[in-house]
Description:
This protein has helices at 45-60, 63-73, 95-121, 127-151, 157-164, 184-200, 242-251; strands spanning 78-81, 86-88, 169-171. It is mainly alpha-helical.
Amino acid sequence: MSHDVPEHPHPEQPAPGGPAGWPPRHPVPPYPYAYGDAEPTAPDVAGEVRRGALVLLAVAVPGILLGLLWLWLAPRIPLVSDGSAVLLKETEGEGAVGADGTFALLAAAFGAVSATAVFLLRREGGVSVVVGLALGGLLGSVLGWGTGTLLGPTHDVVAHAKAVGEGVTFDAPLELQAYGALLVWPVAAMFVHLALTALFAPREPEAVWDPGLPAAPQAPPRHEPRRAAPAPDPAPPRARTQGGDRSGAATG
Length: 252
């Protein structure tokens, strides 16, 4: 007659390698929830993408204002035609450097303002907000660059020189020589947003153990069987000395 052996031991019987009652039948979760019994929900990917896109558009649109301010505040480069060629009226002028510097300063200001606005409206933050802020700043810089160059003086310098006549001063087209200035807005926005987040962002409360939950069980120490001590080696036989042989012979 065969007896079926249960796969799992009885709850009151000791588990292999441990005392009775271990592991517990209803173990406590390893980390209790800090906010009652609500379980953490899965991240809303679609919502994150939507928030990031809104931030990107809201930050990029003011780039048109950046271009208008750049066109208004950037120094001009005067040109003059002698009938055969178009020349710089002021050979020692620094108008090109001044235009790049004006764009960079305006972009830094726009980056700080946009980062502050995003932090105040989206104080909870998130990866999508930060990515939208960075990409929106870059797109805003490109929009400002395009707006300033498009609405500024014409790029057809020869036709403009013929239209105004010989010896008449006219402005050179507004151009951005240092393309690295396009990164000033997103970089400034990242620094300002990081500083505001570090100083004023709400802190997450530390997890508190719910008193209604039992204490987490501790695993009992494992008891390894004792090993028998090895038997001592038998003492080697003592060698008989010559003196002992003589004394035995004399006795005989």
